[in-house]
Fold each of these.
Amino acid sequence: MATGKEIKKWYFAFLAIWTLIADIPFLFMAFTSLKTQMELLMGNTWQIPKKPTIGNYLTVFEGSFFNYLKNSVIAVSVSVVLILLVSSMAAFVFARMKFGLNNVLYSLIIAGMAIPIHVTLIPIYILTNKMKIYDSILALIGPYVALSLPMSIFILTEFMREIPIELEEAAKIDGCSMFRLYSNIILPLSRPALITVGIYNGTYLWNEFIFALVLTSTPEKRTLPLGIWDFQTKYGSDIPAIMAFLTLSLLPMLIAYILGQDKIIKGMMAGAVKG
Amino acid sequence: MGKERSAKLWHNMGILLFLAPALILIGVYIIWPIIMSFNLSRFDWDGISPQKIYVGFKNWIDLMHDTIFWHALGNNIKFIILSLVIEMPIAILLAVLLDRGGKKFDIFKSLFYLPMLMSSVAIGVLFKYIYDPQFGLLSGILNFLHLDFLAQDWLGDPKIAFYSVVAVICWQYIPFYMIFFIAALSNIPQELYEAAKIDGATQGQYFWKIELPLLSPSIKTACILSLIGSLKYFDLIYVMTEGGPSNATELMATYMYKSAFASFKMGYGSTIASAMFIIITTAGIVAYFATRQKEA
């Protein structure tokens, strides 16, 4: 049997190896983005750039990068605000109101979590064309909000159920209306759950690909993941420029992660833990 | 009486008003599309012409005889098995090691999370170039280690392409399941370890007698998540190979997408989507009840 010290050595060896596996691709990406095409073709791929250049980043900035970024910010932030509003209203009813169809409706919506969203892709594409909103950010917001609702309503309802009934009763005696109860009492108390739901949907939608691929077509209207897709189609052979684009596209998430590590991780996991 | 009635009416109106946005959105973007998908599966339609040709169950019969679809479904199943076999053990091992290290290992945690921050498209494009036979990182490293003979056309060879892509997907998802298990481990009461320590337990015994049994509900959940995820997977495969070379990496979702939006067969695409719906929903229900019964 190995002694404690020897085991610790193995721990570290394994963790070190996994660090390499997990992170070397990122170093390759960052290093390559600072190389010229010439240096990449001539030298070893894993080498640190000898004369780092920001030329590739300038190439990316000359393209539509900021437009893709802007579209992503708009599509995701509008969607998240709407998701929070619509799902918290529904969750408030499911968690705090008594009415005949409460359980039936709630169960039906929760069942929506298990639905493979791909089955909705073709009909939503047709619908988007019929509504004459194809190739617009608006085309994305509808499905983004709707497809996020089952999970969001579930998380919020379960959270709101835990809020003590006494608070509500006190407010009712004071003559508080349903709307005031929602906006002044339940909503502020649900802050932690709202943040989790917001981060979960925000990170998921920030990276969403297939709906953006199907519902938009021009760079003017596309989001960042599609920007990567378009850029690599256009600059297929210019690997350093593509790596610069990838590095830039990672930055917003990296910054968000550094600012709120624990919350981001908790948010990303929310869907899974509940699933 | 009248006052009470009107109060009740207001109450019900309020409920309706609060639920309406959610119900309308779910109706328009989830329920109607599912019905529509099954409906469209009985038509031949290119998605453009105003005329849809009713063909009854022809698309479904074609699907039954479509070797590409069965091959894609087979790939989905292979993909389920590979992800379970590769992702779960590594994720559990990493989670256990990080959990035992405590706060000291926080830096490793952060380093391991990185793949989770990247979008699937970005990961797909990055690894396309890592796999590049001429100036990719992988051949560079193999060259450097004098292992040139191992170098392959990772994505171009139909025999290897599927495994090359699955390796990347595992790389992407291991951190996700790792955190999932770290969260579960943090719920194990410290007293259990202390009791085991008094009994003179070894590191291995901690793992087999305490950690693994207490993780098992989480492992089941993770396996269901992975199963469903593998059945509807699309992003990385489409970005890295578009299902090629010669359908080697085809999955149901990529085949559905290509049928509908590249070959303009909306009816047939809808048939594939509807079949996916049936398969995934059934698998989900079966997996759910199978794991629930065992727990009881």
Amino acid sequence: MIKKAKGRLRLLVSMLALVVLLSSCGGGSSKPENVNGEKVTLQFWTIALQPTFTPYFNRVIADYEQKNPDVKIDWKDYPYDAVTNKLLTSIASGSSPDVVNLNTEFASQMGSKGAVVDMNEYLSPEEKAAYFEGIYNSTVINGKAYALPWYTGTEVLYMNTKLVKAAGLDPAHPPKTREELSEWGRQVNRKLGKAGYAQQLVSKLFAIDGIPILNKEKTAAAFNTPEAVTMINNLKKQMEDGVILKEDADFAQQVKYYAGEQVAFELAGPTFINFIKTAAPDVYKNTIAVPVPTGKADVRLSNSMDLVVPTKSAHVNEAVKFAVFLTNAESQTAFSKAANTLPSTKDSIKDPYFTQSDQSLEAQAKVVSAQSLDKATDYMVGVPNAKDVNSAVTRAFQNILLNGTDTKQTLTALEEEVNDILKQ
Amino acid sequence: MIKWLRSESFTAWAFMTPGLLLLAVFVFWPIIYSIPLALTDYSVISDTHYVGLANFEAAFKDRNFLISVWNSLVYVLIVPFLQIFSILMAVLVNSRIPAIKIFRTTYYIPVVTSMVAVALIWSWLLGNNSVVNYLLIKVGIISREIHWLSDSNLALYVLMFITMWKGLGYYMMLYLAGLQNIPQDLYEAARVDGASRWRLIVHITLPLLRPYILFCTLISLMAAIRVFDEVYVLTKGGPGTATLTSSLYIFQKGMEQFNFGYASALGLIVGAVIGVLSIIVFRFNRKGGVNPY
């Protein structure tokens, strides 16, 4: 009996020793280069841009390396779903990339954790002034800018003219406000039995009506107001009236509904066109793009991609310099032309490319959205722990709009939850 | 030494070592390592600080976590249904009826299909203006669309149904193996004594399937509490917290919000819940419990 127990104990101890030994075989941290005049290699990561935009990046990287002979850029591209895990594992194993393309929400989340450098420390006032202020400020938390804005998109209103005309509406005089859009949606529902549009239930809904998510100091929730109750109850009514689909529809679902002509409208950025062109060529032919109807706040919301430099980068100075180069007006104009996106730099939209339209849907959407960039603001401006806040808000919206919980009570509980998140 | 090299235990260890090594690296070590992690605010991307039991205290005050554990426990309700239906299906496909191999294969197809693919297909079947709603309205069973996945009273049960639908074939195969191990002469002796088909199942099949029932109940119980794929693909835990399961919440806290210390604490609590439930199942299946004799 004792012999058996000893044997088991020995086995357990040797197993544990083996495990500890194996776990110590981790990746070593990257050492700063350039100490003896050697070339610095910058790890540059993007999200879902290969192979479509490989020629653009090869060109811009070659250009940068020619101007900076002591720097070599190692460009890697990852799918959207994989980049988070990849970034976490790289940082954990001590081989952090130097320049990473992230969205605003993720960049703010990393900034809140102190994981990316404050760009304000590195950029001159002139360099900062090159970007649209509303977009540059989207990742500013406590005066620290955690990312440089890169390519962006503002929403436009896509309309299925076939359905709109069938409902007795005139696409030549599109709705200009959210109220008018609701009326159009009601008419589409009445006449055709289809919904107006599908929508994702995110914090953006507050921003459309000018309801601040947080107070000015970003220390507490600020959305628990009578205006918010009215706004949410109005959304509830619109769902009951068939203006908005009673569902929390992500972008992929929205594409599906619009392509299947189950909704007459779509509020989305220019990338929506590529999806609809592939999914439903006939619907694409009947689609026009017009300025997005604004809510009470009269703002147009941008949805930006950013460049961040992780604090664990071994070459912070070189990385920031490259990020500035990639997001300057010249580089951004070229990228916008290649990728049908919008730039976040003021000088870029002076280019004729953003003012002239050949009446194609792509050109309509581009011109319409480029005109609103100076008014554009990201809806998650400077929100610490943006991901946590967003998922809490989404859950609350779903509870009220889909599960039928009391608006005021749910908002009060959400306020408490967001305040707890901000204390973390 | 040479004697040991020729022994049966050496052979056994030689076969087990590769698997044990993999388990050590990918299972045992993460479990052990999560214990110290749960006592910190580890986030991978920033400095780590010791926080003591703060993560555990926060967990028991975290309404969303408590809801997620409750939803996972509700999910366990599929276990008895899963066992009953898979045993019945195994009995069915164990009979000598024509084209039985086609049935076996058909029932097993969902098992070998990726859960993500299965979930996507079900999302098309159950979404707005979906095939299921269309057919039910046409037949006259329902008068207007049912929001299967965005109705908080339905969504969790719909997910449970999908999990059950996918798992049936797997457990059916395990029970089929069990059924084919039962000596046929026992049945023949009972038939000679005039036992009906039902009595054969109750007095021979079920008692002799007991080890299989224990095994299947345990693994399906663990799978039910750990359910992730279908919830992540179909509802992301929504609407609200209606389908938020513990695995999904732990994933959100760790991989999406970088609170790995907190996520480790949640993982340990859920692990303890699974441990307690497993012990109950073991106790229930020792002598006592359901005695078919």
